[in-house]
Amino acid sequence: MSEMISSESPFRRLPIDLPRRQILYLDALRLSAEMAAIAFQRLNALLVHLSQKGAEPLGDGAVRALVDAYSVVDSAHRFREVLRVTPGLKHNAEFELFMRRCASDKPA
Asked: Residue 23 domain-assigned?
């Protein structure tokens, strides 16, 4: 599995002079993104595998797919909520656009 956030990313090399509280929030954002990526990769691999099985019974495949799909959604929701309250983050036009586009209560 490839990592979503590279080992060279600033998220993995936070400045030591950042306030501890901000470091915790940035770590939570990184972990949420990585959790979503891992769940998505697992879901994708499982769905490819299940589609190749054809009409054979799914067994626990459907449950595993639902677990991974929910994990992607849950991680994305967590990322959005942590981002909303991250200290030191400017709530500029780009931030507001991101938050609106990721809102779960958007009209379909």
From this structure: yes
